[in-house]
Each structure stands twice: as structure tokens, then as C-alpha cells.
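Minutes, methods subgroup
Present: GH (chair), OT, SY

1. OT presented the first of two proteins processed in the latest run. Sequence and C-alpha cells recorded below as shown on screen.
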Amino acid sequence: MQKISGMRLFSELVVQLGTSTKTNDRLELLVNYFSAASDGDKVWVIALFSGRRPRRTVNTTMLWEWCRELTGLPGWLFEESYHTVGDLAETIALLLPDADGVEDPGESLGYYLIRLGELGKEDEAARKAFVQRCWAGMSRDERFVFNKLITGGFRIGISQQTVVNALARATGAEAAVVAHRISGDWDPETTVYATL
């Protein structure tokens, strides 16, 4: 059985959490994620779910134009699609040529988040090349989550306590200990999961 990469595993988690309404189901999804994900990606998920979102390094106008360029859609049709869907990240994920069934590129969630942070120092051509290359190698769900991370619009309706409880169950530690360890000022780029 082939191991699923960090970004694919994370996007599956986000989609499942988005369709689940029961706290116990969400808790179980998180426990399963924390049991299966790499240590590096666990740190990033803890950071994301506790409000440490990456800084936006690509503006929405760029994403809009890059998607229009790939799809060949006229501006008015893109705008109509966006107004119908109501979310730019989702609109782009839906409009891009279908990439479902593509081979998993094998990159970790951490790779994408670190790379997105680095894009702020690069010119528009480098940003465009990276984003379009990622879109081409991702499934629709992965593109949706990736776009949410790019736009700074990544929010998940999971309470901090649910994350703490899931980590406690996955690690065997007490919830109060977990809550203390993940609070405070720490950087997911330099923090090791075992230390955290």
C-alpha cells in the first residue's frame, strides 16, 4: 500500500472535517490524522488549527489571472463563476482542468507552507510558476486547500479543545499537558513534534 503524502492526507482531513457536523466524528478524524501523519506535518497542523496561518505572499488578483490564463475563460465568465460559488479558492479549484487521479507528488504539508512563505521574496514569474505547477499536480480537493492556504483564508471550524483532545488520545498524554505544550510562542518551521 502506497503511503499518502502530507498535502494529500491534510486535504482529505480538511474536506472530511468540513462535511462532518458531529464533535465525536471530528475528534476521531483528528486522532486518525495524528496517528498517520509525519511528525513534521503534525506540527504544521497544530499550528494551523491554533490560528498560526501563513502570511499571504500571492495576492488574489494574481491567482485570478493565472487561473484565467490556464482555463482560457473570459473575465465575465470567471466573475460569474466566482459570484455563484462565493469563494475564490473554491472557484479556482473547480475551474482548473481536472487533475483528479494524478500521481501523488509526495510532498509534505510543511514543504508547501515553507515554500509559500519563501515566495514573498521572489518575483511574480517565480510565484506563478510554482503555483501553476502545484495546481497541475494536485487533485481538486488539494487545490482547494492549497488555495485557501495561499489566500490566507484557511479557517477550520475546530475548537482548540478538540485538537487538544485528539492529540491527547493519539499520544497517550493528558489533555492538560498537551494544552500547555502547544500554547505559547513557537514556530512550526523550527519546532520538532517530539519536543513540542
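2. SY then presented the second protein from the same run.
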Amino acid sequence: MSDQTEPAAVTTYEVADDGVALIRLDRPRARNAINTQMLSELLEHLAVARGDEAVRVLVFSSTDHMGLSAGADVREELDHDGHVRRMQMFSDLYDAIVAFPKPTVAACHGDVVGGGAEISIACDLRVGGSNLRMRFPGAALGMPVGPARLVTLCGLAAAKYLLLTSRTVGPDEALRLNLVNRVAPAAATEESALALAASVAAHPPEAVARLKRMLHEWDDVEGRSAAEGVGQVEHVRGGVDFPFG
């Protein structure tokens, strides 16, 4: 008999009576850095939520209001194939969130960086915490990630500003640039995101789903997100082992 034990889950998933499902990232000691295990769990939760008719809105948050996620886990030991595989999982995750047929909301408290920022902008709506520090570090790290979803969210000029500078923005600037829809006290960010989700969940789900589908078809964000993901994976496959999502 093997004495090896399964690793503890690094995410949680629950569904409330109002139809709001909540996914929480749960690696607070690692600043919710996203490793291969977390990616696998997130993809599994998305698949479950997608197939559950009781789910009307999906919320992403974390168990620590000091940060949604500091990005990809740079300490995870991976060989070249492992880096390629993980980048494919990041790409699959972003696409799965963008293409999720029901509305999605992100609780953007504290550090929302790299892969964490990409999760947030893949969602339909975002609540920023008063302690928000959002950053898209792709240019600084040599990784071409973010344009497909960010340009849809805040426009070409703002997307260039955020991506080419890799600057960190706080809650006020994030609100001005349409990166978040509202700002809440840091410790109440998730609560505010859940309340926003509940207000959407109260509407007829068929109409909400149709509206989202129409918006995405007219904007083609899903097609652009998928194309960007292919480029990211090939970038890693053919070059340096980038540990960043």
C-alpha cells in the first residue's frame, strides 16, 4: 500500500440557494499563486458549474482578501514540457471563463496580477477592493498575454497603456479605466461581488444567457481569446520556459 496522500485542494466550490456559485482560490500562504493543481481544479469547477442548471451566476474570489492571485506560481518545478502543458491549461482556463454561458463576476481584492488579472478580465463583471493592486506584467516578463480580453474591456488605448507599461493600478484608476465596475472596502469585496451576482441571478436566466451570447458574438471576444491562447502556447513551446500565466 502506498503511503502517499493526495495533495490538499487549493480551491473551494459551493453553490448558494439563489443560484450563485462561488469558486475561491485557497493558497493564501503562496499569495494564491496559480500552479498546475489549481488550474486543474479551476477547470473542473468550471465544467461542473457549466453543467449545473441550478447555477445562474459564477463568482471568482479567494479565501484571503489580501489578494485574488499574485499570478502563476514561479516556484513550481516544471520541465519544458511541463511549462508548455501549464500554459495550455492557462489558455484553456481563460477561454473557459470567457465562453462560460452564464454571467461571471470577479472579486478583485488585493493583488490581482498576471494570471489573476487575466481571470478577472475574462469575467463579465468585476468588483474592486479598496486595496486593489492590478497589474498585467506580460511585457516586463516577455510574455504576450492579455490583449484579446483587455481591449474588449477597456478599449485599445487603455489596453496599450496597461500592457505596454506593465504598471500597477489601484482601485480609483481601475474604476476610471473600466477595469472594475465598482469599488468596495477590502474585506467586503467578496460580499459586494456576491451581492452583484445575486442581482443578476434574479433575472430570467434564459434572457441573461441570450444577452451575453449576443454581446460576445458581436464582439468576437471568444474567438480573439482562443487565438491569443494558441499564440501563448506556441511561444512557450518554441522558446524559453516562461513560468508565467
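Chair's summary of item 2: The radius of gyration is 17 Å.
Next meeting: continue with the remaining queue.
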